[in-house]
From TrEMBL:
The chain crosses the membrane at residues 244-270, 282-304. Its EC number is 2.4.-.-. GO terms for molecular function: glycosyltransferase activity. It comes from Henriciella marina. Pfam families: Glycos_transf_2. CDD domains: DPM_DPG-synthase_like. Keywords: Glycosyltransferase, Membrane, Transferase, Transmembrane, Transmembrane helix. Residues 24-177 form the Glycosyltransferase 2-like domain. This is Glycosyltransferase. It is an enzyme of class 2 (transferase).
Length: 326
């Protein structure tokens, strides 16, 4: 039954490099100050590429300026970068996808290098890591958050990436069409990174300069709001991808709490043969029971998680790997 579901896909054959279609995709929200220059820069770097600007309910003239600059403009009404990326991956047909932001902070001149790296190394995602982003991300809180979240990611999901929040990426067709995006906001890059680690997608990183926004352009990232959203996404992804460890940690914490409550009771019992605080003893036993149930749930869910990984991997492999010529 699972195999039949995979066979409903209609993947295209591997692309001839001479005819490879490249799509530059730019999610945008109120980027009127920078979008025209970004489009021009990417057109110069990748002359044969189609340039798409996905406007996310901008209240300025972003869409109009992008259209006048020659980009293909589309609109996503659900607010959030994750919704925009999901729409891009669903709607755009290409062999190579270049994704960047419309704020001018990424160097478009390096796009051909990232594309060539993907071709030569036969990988499905190349990440343009932002130079010194953990030391200077424009705002001290952002730099600190990048450092902490990258360390947490490496601890939870593996050391495959050094900049999980970079928005400058190049994808193969089979990555784009098999990625089950569920995030709605800035946590979409984290989801991409976890997905790659989970099913073993070949990836590369390449350091790139990270520019500063113009004075009349403001960041859409809210330090605390989006930080908590990303932290929540970490917890959800940990639960989904490593349920045995996730629920096992909860069970261990409950067990330790029960032992702390029960230790004085046990000591008193051995000394006097009495249990002076019976409700505490009941609470301790209840915590042990809940901890046991939690650990068992983690083991069961771990088997389901493994099945999901196999299904995701099967969908990914149902799309042919492009054979780029040197």
């Amino acid at each position: 039954m699972k195999r039949a579901a995979v066979e409903t896909f209609d993947p295209r054959p591997a692309a001839d490099p001479a005819e490879a279609r490249i799509a530059v995709t730019l999610p945008c929200y109120n980027e009127a100050a920078t979008i025209a220059q970004v489009i021009e820069d990417f057109r110069s770097a990748l002359p044969g590429a189609d340039i798409y600007v996905f406007d996310n309910n901008s209240t300025d003239a972003t869409a109009q300026i992008a259209r006048e600059a020659g980009a293909i403009v589309r609109t996503e009404i659900r607010q959030g970068k994750g919704h925009v990326v999901r729409r891009i991956f669903a709607d755009i047909e290409a062999d190579i996808y270049v994704m960047a932001d419309g704020d001018g902070t990424y160097d478009a001149a390096l796009a051909p290098t990232l594309v060539e790296l993907m071709k030569k190394n036969h990988v499905d995602m190349v990440v343009g890591t932002r130079a010194n982003v953990t030391k200077d991300a424009g705002r001290g809180g952002h730099a600190f958050g990048n450092r902490i979240f990258n360390m947490l990611f490496n601890r939870l999901f593996g050391r495959q990436f050094s900049d999980i929040f970079s928005g400058y990426r190049v994808f193969s067709r089979r990555f784009v069409k098999s990625f089950p995006a569920v995030s709605g906001g800035f946590e979409i890059e984290t989801e991409m990174s976890v997905h790659s680690c989970q099913i073993g997608i070949p990836t590369l990183e390449r350091p790139t300069p990270y520019g500063v926004r113009p004075e009349d352009s403001t960041s859409k990232l809210k330090t605390f709001r989006d930080g908590f959203r990303i932290l929540g996404m970490f917890m959800v992804l940990a639960k989904e991808t490593r349920p045995a460890a996730f629920f096992g940690a909860i069970g261990l914490a409950l067990t330790l709490a029960a032992l702390c409550l029960a230790a004085p009771l046990a000591l008193t019992y051995f000394q006097t043969g009495l249990v002076p605080r019976f409700p505490t003893a009941v609470l301790s036993m209840g915590l042990v029971i809940v901890a046991t149930v939690t650990a068992v749930c983690g083991l069961i869910l771990d088997s389901l998680a493994r099945a999901r990984v196999e299904a995701k991997r099967s969908v990914f492999l149902s799309y042919p790997a492009p054979e780029w010529k040197s």
